[in-house]
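Treating backbone geometry as a discrete language has practical consequences that deserve illustration. The sequence in question and its structure tokens are set out directly beneath this paragraph.
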Amino acid sequence: MKIALIHATTTALKPIERAFQEVAPSIELLHFMDTSLLSLMEKSGKLTPEIIHRFSALVNLAYNSGVSCIQLTCSAFNDVTTILQPLYSVKLFRSDEAMLDEALRYTKIGLVSTVKETPIALQNYLLNKNPDCMIQSLVDPGIIHLLSHGKRKEHDARVIKMVEQLDGKTDVIVLSQYSMEHIAKQVNPSVPILTAPLLAAKRCLDHLSEEF
């Protein structure tokens, strides 16, 4: 059985691979990536026709590879699933769908993001599911790029600072990007802290078990 992973950054690769290795090591993972997508999103601040076209090209490649489902790994592009899902018979999963559903068990939700456009996509999902949920969002724009420049310590320190700022002000803290997953082990907030990769992998498997 094959699952496609759609990436906009290289920083999502290891977290999602580790997650699937933990829950389903026999699954074949196919990676499809366009690293120009993030810079296009950062310039436009929204899903443009060009972004949607480039993303659909990746989904087409994945779909034509005979995969059983398609998992996005970059949260800034999650809303594209609403546009593209009607075109495909296989399920397209948002990068954070399972994580945000878990977050909705709480009333006050804190979002920590390293890409300026990410909170918009997450808030759209949360408020559509529960208009009464209260969201507090902190974003340090663009620091995700520190990881690709070998500045992991600086990246982590700035994310940890945001976590500390939210601690005690919300009922749960969400680390929005896959690239922040490792930071959950570096902090010990007074409220639960959620990351997406493992929950996403489990949701894919649950879906496949229902389908097959």
User: Anything to note?
Assistant: The domain at 2-96+198-211 is CATH 3.40.50.1860 (Rossmann fold). The CA atoms of residues 104 and 130 lie 8 Å apart. The radius of gyration is 16 Å. The chain has two domains: 2-96+198-211, 97-195.
